[in-house]
Amino acid sequence: MSTGQDQLKELLQQNRQWVKRVSPDLLASLEKGQSPKCLWIGCSDSRVSPTTITNQPLGSLFEHRNIANVISSTDGNAMAVVEFSISLLGVPDIVVCGHTECTGVATAMIHEEGQEDPSKDHLHQWLVPTRKVYQENAKALEALDPRQRVLELGRLNVAASVSAIAATPAAKAAWANGQPLRIHGWRFNMAQGLLEDLNMTHDGSC
Ligand SMILES: [Zn+2]
């Protein structure tokens, strides 16, 4: 049986193997700077690694990941990433990508007020925006079976993050200056391995 230390040792060993396989030209290009195709905002889930599921090399995606791909104007970390991507890197596209079987979204749904667990305090605080989306759509969501309910809340949660990015001063300034910027909502279907466009793109025209 492998121990935790063995597993971490494997990461270091695999890095050495990767260096042997990777193109020296790619490493040389990375050293010169980055010009990523997009800002990718996804869930921290270990099963949805963006460069793996999109088959992209290093340098392709500027990434921001958190529990349940939540974007909120009160999150200084996320806001700095959005500003950096738009204002410094000039990315033309931002993708907010949710996924099926998202434990973060499911957790936001089951939390009940008055049952706070101090060991999960920050997690529950983090999921407040997703819980708010649930409460705003409770009637429609509760008419669905439990599996569909999590899926639909996940979709609405992506839409809320897309809207939050569209409302940032950085996005508004880009559109006012004629800088191309599209903000997309996608979902990764874990069982199929496929990405789906949820057709909620903002391009500043509305
Ligand atoms: Zn997730």
UniProtKB/TrEMBL annotation:
What this protein catalyses is: hydrogencarbonate + H(+) = CO2 + H2O
> Which EC number(s) are documented for this chain?
4.2.1.1
**In its UniProt record, which GO terms are filed under biological process?**
carbon utilization; cellular response to carbon dioxide; cellular response to oxidative stress
Give this protein's Gene Ontology molecular function annotations: carbonate dehydratase activity; zinc ion binding
**InterPro entries per record:** Carbonic_anhydrase (IPR001765), Carbonic_anhydrase_CS (IPR015892), Carbonic_anhydrase_sf (IPR036874)
Tell me the enzyme class. lyase
- Keywords carried by this UniProt record: Lyase, Metal-binding, Zinc
**Which domain of life does this protein belong to?**
Eukaryota
Checking Pfam families in the record gives:
Pro_CA (PF00484)
Under SUPFAM superfamilies, the record lists: beta-carbonic anhydrase, cab
Cofactor note as given: Binds 1 zinc ion per subunit.
State the needed cofactors, names only: Zn(2+)
Gene3D superfamilies in the cross-refs: Carbonic anhydrase
Does the record carry Zinc as a key word? yes
Q: What does this protein do?
A: Reversible hydration of carbon dioxide.
* Family under the similarity heading: Belongs to the beta-class carbonic anhydrase family.
Q: What is this protein called?
A: Carbonic anhydrase
Origin organism of this chain? Answer: Piptocephalis cylindrospora
